[in-house]
Amino acid sequence: MFLINTVLLAGICLTVVAVLWRFWDKLALHSSVGWLLLLTFLAPNVVYPYWSAIIRHRKINKLYLDGDISEQPAGSPIDELLSVADTSLNEGLRNTMFCFGLFLLVLVLWHLLP
After folding, report:
1. How far apart are CA 72 and CA 114, in angstroms?
2. Residue 114: CB partners within 8 Å, gap ≥ 6?
3. Do 107 and 26 touch, CB atoms closer than 8 A?
4. Overall domain count for the chain
5. Residue 23 forms part of a structural domain
6. pLDDT range class, residue 92, cuts 50, 70, 90
7. Of 31, 92, 95, 110, which is most buried by a Cβ count within 10 Å?
8. Do residues 7 and 99 lie in contact, with contact meaning Cβ atoms separated by under 8 Å?
9. Which of 27, 34, 26 is CA-nearest to residue 103?
10. Average pLDDT in the 83-92 region?
11. What residues have CB less than 8 Å from 103, skipping those under 6 apart?
12. pLDDT (tens digit, 9 = 90+) per residue, 69-82?
């Protein structure tokens, strides 16, 4: 799941770069609030949640490596808790990236298509 979110993050960042590269002439001529919103929303809504998830994943991994958490049998309370944490991190990342992708699509269609 986290690998899929990593691919989505890379895809969105590359798409932003491609859109900026492709339509730089139009962007330079028209100082648009929409494009400032694009760059403003990219950091707190896509990059920061991913970075935060990496930090949380590192904390859980450290607990495993230190022996504070051991491998649990399926269905145990700790296994369920870790499963819920993993699912919520991944779904949160996927939802923010999906919403930003829709925002990027709307912005491109609204500003750049005739």
Report:
1. 57
2. none
3. no
4. 1
5. yes
6. confident
7. 92
8. no
9. 34
10. 84
11. 38, 41
12. 777 788 888 888 88
